[in-house]
Amino acid sequence: MDFEKRILDAVSAEGTEWQTGAPCFGSGFDFIPDEETDEGVNMAQQWCRTCPVRTTCLAWAMLHGAEGYWGGTTTYQRNQLRRVRTRAKCPLCLGTALVYSDPHELCLSCGVSWIRDVREEPIAATPLPANAA
Fold first, then answer.
1. What pLDDT is attached to residue 26?
2. Which of 14, 59, 71, 128 has its CA 20 to 30 A from that of 7?
């Protein structure tokens, strides 16, 4: 089975059993509020900071366009990650340790990745070593 198929299977709408392994499962906190607030973001990030399924949660939210707090991010932050552009800093953790392998960029600090704008040269990203790609 190829790598992309395994990712899509893991984050498909039907495959949400990963949610039961999350510390927030059944917590009572409203992760999908009518309005996202700074206080809500802080509470959600406290739950997500050490969560073992955070990356799966974030990938699922990105794939399905979910609203609310997912994987320690807000709807706005995920919309920014979807934008195709070259970044000097990670939009999630503001780290500057970025690498790219066309057309993807990866933050080495927090592990989030996105598709960069191939119309421009990268601002601060450095190429991945040939043996890592």
1. 81
2. 128
